[in-house]
Write a structure and sequence with these properties.
It contains 5 helices and 2 strands, in the order ββααααα. The protein has 188 residues and is mainly α. The protein has a domain at 6-99. It is rod-shaped. The model is unreliable at 175-188 (pLDDT under 50).
Amino acid sequence: MSDRVERIRVRIGKMTYQLTASDDPQKMRDIAVTANAMMEQIAKRQPQLNQISQAVLALVNAVGMMQEAHEKRQEAYESRDLAERTTEEIRAELTRLREQFWQMKKELLYYRNLCEIYETKLSERMLSSDDEKVIRTARKRRRPRRTMIGDLQVTIEDTIQNNIDDQVPDDTDDSAENTLYMSEDTGV
């Protein structure tokens, strides 16, 4: 703010005024031009009013315009604050989603690597099982299967089962007994 005070002459309504401007004299002239336009507008609408009444009405209109501008400014600030809060929320959500994306990407790479390992192991087993089949068939061609000691051993359960299987129902019985015997075997 400068200490320089400048006097300017302006015309508002039908009168000329001498005003002092400490900041910008051009700004004061622009304000005076706006005040003069407001006074002329009121004079055109209501020519019966005297100069003082026109000035008061212009002042009331100016205060109303100032109030509207203030309300619009407040709404703009509130909208800006809401936009800033929304932006912060969106950024936080974006950060959370990025972290989730990277976590999923790490898991995907882990499982992809795991799949490659299992595919390698499976292919090795397939190759080794193919080799074993070739070796087995070659051995079978060379010599017959040896009889092992376990092959000749018979348990009591095997003997009982063989005896039950060997029993055949008598053909002389009537058909009702045969049906009964068959249903007992099948568990029906």
